[in-house]
Amino acid sequence: VQEVPIPQPPPTMLLGNFPDMDPSFPAREIQRFADIYGEIYFLELASRTVVLSTQELINEVCDQERFHKDIPRTLLEARALTGDGLFTSAHEDGLVLKREENWWKAHRLLVPAFGPLGLRKMFDDMLDISAQMVLRWDRMGEHHAIDCSGDFTRLAFDTIGLCSFGYRFNEFYTDEVHPFAKQMADVLKMSGQRANRTVLENMLHRWEEHERQDNIKKMHDLVNQIVAERKTSPKPDAKDLLNTMLFSVDRDSGETLSEQNVANNVVTFLVAGHETTSATLSFMWYNLLKHPEAFHKAQKEVDDIVGDQVLSLDMLPKLTYIDACIKETLRLNSPIPLVSVNPKEDTSLAGGKYRVKKGDVMTINNKGLHHDPMVWGQDHNEFKPERFLDGKFQALPPNSWKPFGNGLRACIGRGFAEQEMVANTAMILQRFSPEMADLGYDLMIKSTLTIKPDGFFMKVRRRPHKS
Ligand code: HEM
User: Fold this and answer.
1) DSSP state of 397
2) With a 6 A CB cut-off, is 417 part of the ligand 1 pocket?
3) I need a labelling partner for 153 at 20 to 30 A (CA). Which of 128, 164, 357, 381 fits?
4) Of ligand 1's atoms, which has the minimum distance to the CA of residue 265?
5) Is 404 among the residues known to form the active site?
6) What gap in Å lies between CA 394 and CA 17, rounded to an integer?
7) Calpha distance 249→191 (Å, rounded)
8) Is 393:401 a contact under the CB 8 Å cutoff?
9) How far lies 136's CA from each of 123, 179, 368, 406, in Å?
10) Cα-flanking dihedrals φ and ψ of residue 376, to 5°?
11) Which of 74, 338, 409, 411 for mutating ligand 1's site (highest number of atoms within 8 Å of CB)?
């Protein structure tokens, strides 16, 4: 194979491709260039950023022998908030961070806690929060326009608060969002902006950095207080993750996690799990309401399996069509649109065609991957949950669908999110017939650290035969 130079959009002197990036929506810019340059191109940003947009190339960088997650600049900024929590710590030596044992310890302790048995324990708490949402929708009545992003964020945030550290944010009982949620949104927004600015530009935004640090302190004060309380007065019967994190001993090191690391992980779960889950649910409802035949299939599935009963854990694996709607939504609208890995050594891609270096950042562009016509066919733009049914998905080439990231560093909360989303969707379909508040609404997207629908509202009518 002959080596070919990787194309680059024309850079600006001194600033490289920084002026090409819109800090308020990096994924859109990344896709804009993918439309022009195709399967691979690079941008001169803080590092040389090589963007990949086909299954074939992305499959290659999913090989954990040759590529690994090295905490990129976007995540280094978020570390001011989440420290050595799982998302933002290094499991191997990288260019900036050295291997952190705390990642391994927390990973070993938490993988089982997020596994099937751990999730079983958390089901009642998930149902508790979903029931609060359904009740609120019911009481607001059929003329009330539900702000989907707002309410699903309340749902996801309250659910993680309760399941991870036994704390009730009670977002469904107040109109104002909890100060913690507001502080988190502000910190994430500012961290994202900082990551996409030059060092010089960041120096000019010093007052903003002051505000960011102040918010971070307030958030940690709350979490530290709860963690310390549990440590001094343990609650052996609590079913949340906090007990596992504080009191389990890691078999390899013989140690427990430090209080500081536990707090960092609690904050990490709140950050990593609330917007992603909320965005997926909003996107899914948008897709369902735009596709009445899919909506009716989903509702029929709930009628057949749940009927008038209270939803129970053993019903969830039978709700396969709802699960497929969620997976198809994650294909079309991945809330984390970009994930990056680094080559461990200088190497090449596509059998020697493209040369890449150790310091390069390989960006997996989910939009490109999830629309690769070689994998998903010519109808890749269409919402078709059937793609994920009857073993069709399993027959696709490896690494064709990556909304939850890759390998060892893939999402630890995937099962948690799936259980919560299927349960919540089933409860809504059982009780209500939702429709779009504005029948002419077409999807608009906004971006913070995740992407989510903008201005999407639903109305719900109680189904006649339900008690
Ligand atoms: C990692 C997506 C829900 C906790 C990730 C990554 C992705 C992702 C793409 C990899 C990021 C990277 O490589 O840099 C999602 C999506 C979700 C979701 C699409 C919902 C639909 C959750 C939930 C939690 C969670 C509910 C916690 C309760 C985490 C953590 C990591 C992670 C801790 C870091 C894992 C590690 O590196 O050890 N997630 N996530 N996520 N996610 Fe999720």
Assistant:
1) P
2) yes
3) 381
4) 33
5) yes
6) 39
7) 34
8) yes
9) 20, 21, 39, 37
10) -100, -5
11) 411
